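Hi X.,

You mentioned you wanted examples for the new student's onboarding notes, showing what a folding record looks like when two proteins sit in one file. Here is a clean example. The first protein comes first, with its sequence line followed by its structure tokens.
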Amino acid sequence: MNELKAKYQEAIEAEERYRDAPRKGWVKPGSRSRENQTIEVPRKEAERLAADLASARFGSYCRLYENMALVNYMEQLAEDEPDAVTCPKCYHKFLPGWMGGKCPYCAAEDAAQEKVEELLGGGEA
């Protein structure tokens, strides 16, 4: 969780840095090092990309939090039942009546992975 917060803060700082970045040329006259070069993309484009990165990081943070809350709730429901089963792959508890005896956590992870691969594969074409 702290790692995601740090990445989100880093994205926000990048957005602020790009917003205030100097235009084409050199930041300090007389120094021609790579660190002294300025960005040569439109300022609005760099700001938008940094804002999109920050939004994506924040969305990942929220998704992870909601996922953890849902898993915790589902496990609490399963723990109260005497026929609860522990998945040998992910070690989460679930009821055999859920999804025909398949682990809902592993099934959700597999479905998400397939969706991500489909989206990434669709972008290449």
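Then the second protein repeats the pattern, sequence line and then tokens:
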Amino acid sequence: MISKAISIRQPWPWLITMGYKPVENRTWETLWRGPVAIHASQGMTRGDYDDCVAFLLSHPSLRHIVDALPKPEDLPRGGIVGKAHLVACTRAHESPFFTGPFGHVLQSAEPVPFQPCKGALGYFKLPQGVVL
């Protein structure tokens, strides 16, 4: 059973749940490990989306993902969109998605049916009624 979630601005949660992005960058370290729900924050600006596209285009090995990336208006926000296993927290990772200073390494990520849910900072407890 999943009891914790992490909130991330789109389109990064989409990249995680579709298996492209194996590491979530944070300024803080975590000792927690285990299953985690991926929450898509309510907020997302056009700049957030464009920055992601620019990042993908700046890495030759990631350029192909731009063609698969949904349009901004098609990305769900304000709820749980996926799940994964947090397996490590590191200061270095081979993925081009790692920008540090800490990488929260995720494995077995997959999308789940959207469930509206308010987000919070850090790893937060899933509210009652949200079951994965």
